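User: My instructor asked us to take a sequence, write out its structure as tokens, and then describe one feature of it. I'm not sure where to start. Here is the sequence I was given:
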Amino acid sequence: MAEFFRKKKKICQMCAGKSVDYKDPEILRKYINEKGKILPRRVTGACSKHQRHIAREIKRARMIALLPFSK
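Assistant: Let's start with the prediction itself. The structure tokens for your sequence are:
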């Protein structure tokens, strides 16, 4: 019989008090994969409001060449 484990619900890091800014590429690298794509909400654990904020900050960092568009 297969046992099912409940996954621990991820909490949004921004709701918990951390901030994401386009000027800090090290923090933004946690939200993109090795190919440079933005990770989805189900992977990052962010709420929808903050996921949109993360995407906007990643796009800003790409435009001023702090993050690559692709690898």
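For the description part of your assignment, you could build on this observation: The radius of gyration is 14 Å. Try explaining in your own words what that tells you about the chain.
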